[in-house]
Amino acid sequence: xxxxGSKAMGFDQSRASHHFVLTPDGGRIEIDVKEKNDVETRDxxxxxxxxxxxxxxxxxxxxxxxxxxxxxxxxxxxxALRADIDYTFESAPAGGRLxxxxxxxxxxxxxxxxxxxxxxxxxxxxxxxVRR
Length: 132
Description:
By secondary structure, this protein is an alpha+beta fold. The chain has helices at residues 2-9, 39-57, 62-68, 75-80, 105-122, and strands spanning 16-23, 26-33, 85-92, 95-102. It has one domain (2-122). The protein is 44% helix and 24% strand. It has a 4-stranded antiparallel sheet with strand order 1-2-4-3, with helices on one face. β1 (16-23) and β2 form a beta hairpin. α1 (2-9) packs antiparallel against α3. The radius of gyration is 14 Å and the shape is globular. It starts with a helix and ends in a 10-residue tail after the last helix.
């Protein structure tokens, strides 16, 4: 997965850490560089998350498919309900964040399924439960 992810995301996966957070209205994808002086990877992370925010809003989940070699759970519903979900890129000193805000119960459930899959696939150890 790391080799596919490096190619699909545009940065070396071993140089970054991923975290996925479930929130009551959706969640967040957080990616940071492991070395604070790694400006090139930090900038590539930001570029990737900005791109993902546009693609996900359009219902395009090609990058997760390329990374994982399969369509992650939740994607079909997230695509169908894309009008109910906002994706907001936020820059961070060590990388970036993608805030996912869903406006319907079905959309929230789909986002949570997607994020739980990411937690397991990336082996982040993040909680599989919603953070208040």
